[in-house]
Amino acid sequence: MKKIKFLLPAVAVAAYVMSGSTKQTVTPAKPVEKNISFALYKGNDYNADVYNNTSATVHIVIEKISSKGRTTVWEKTFDAQTLKQYPSLQQAIAQTVKVPNVFDSKEYLEVSYTLTYDSKGSQLQMQNGVMVKGNGTDKVYISI
Length: 144
Known about the structure:
The protein has 1 helix and 7 strands, in the order H-E-E-E-E-E-E-E. The chain is mainly beta and 144 residues long. The chain is elongated.
């Protein structure tokens, strides 16, 4: 009986020590900074006279998306230019946007843009979007 009284506390202490060593501590994910580069350029030759009175405006929005919803983190509208004024891909209008505090495990970024063409008062809107999930700098090419 004395052996059992002695062994019982020893087993309890051993079980407590072993249970504490198997627990894993969860460290919260660290936020990262995402970089998104834009290249805005004309994708066609707009030298024909029919394009002389046609302009385009570009509106770009970056949103952070999580289970809690959407948050706009950056937005810009590029002023209207005639189609001929937009540069070729080699001389594209370039801009890099840095988005801080993105939690990769819970969030991602979505880039959406709207091209608005205006020809003598008639307008046409085209929308497109890209999901950004990578590390480093993601590139988004927007062809007018």
